């Protein structure tokens, strides 16, 4: 009998029966024997010193799992079952088990590339090299050098960023939209116990408000430049605001019932992301946003779109 010279690929989640058949030392020994040459049950029994009934049971399991092929041929007394492997080589292949969270696109917007702003003093912004414009003057946010900003702050007001809406052209179904930024409250000097209500809007729809605990200056931020005075805000907290089909969240805690559908993304060529502190906020504690070259995370404003199946 000619043995089929093939590679048998076992996928664990799909081929449980094959894996169970292999989970036996006697059956592994049988496979090793018949790989050298086809054998009948008698011969296998003698070589392994197993009872014929035991060998017959193992052969039946291997055959049912598709790991061997058998053929009944005439013998001097009746028939005999000749056993051959159904493979030349056996491989166990583990499929990619990517976390759905890994299936996403990401856009990072530099801190100073905001498209709209309305801020009140005390306020300001600076690059990794110097303060941009004049401190506590809202018109400094119109300075062309704002594109180099790595830190901006205000007592109240808002800054808005406009991202390209790549979800319009993706055939996959959007499962989550996420915005991440490093944020803190803002007060003259610093104060870790200085709460501030920071609100986020997407496409001008209010997603929710997160209360920041304080303004941090107990130690220099990991990326904050040495020239920036230690009395100033040094770092913030990296927050992840997400919108799903179930609602809106900050670091997994629900903020509101606003869902992806409420954003009406197919109707907009851009995705507008706005951070702000309302003048009538319960905790009017200002806002710092840290970008590249400041704080502990060395990032701008990041927008991620997570996808599931094709539409």
Radius of gyration: 33 Å
> Separation of termini?
51 Å
- The CATH superfamily of the largest domain turns out to be Galactose-binding domain-like
Shape: elongated
Low-confidence segments, given as residue ranges, are 1-5
Structural classification: mainly beta
Number of strands: 19
CATH fold-level name of the largest domain: Jelly Rolls
Number of domains as seen in the coordinates: 2
Strand content: 35-45%
In the CATH scheme, the class of the largest domain would be Mainly Beta
Mean pLDDT reading: 91
- Mind telling me which CATH architecture of the largest domain this is? Sandwich
The succession of helices and strands, N to C, reads EHHEHHEEEEEEEEEEEEEEEEE
- Helix segment tally: 4
> Helix share of residues?
10-25%
The profile of the biggest β sheet is:
9 strands, antiparallel
Keywords:
9-stranded antiparallel sheet; 2 domains; 5-stranded antiparallel sheet; Arc Repressor Mutant, subunit A; elongated; 311 residues
Compose a concise summary of this entry.
It contains four helices and 19 strands. The chain has 311 residues and is mainly beta.
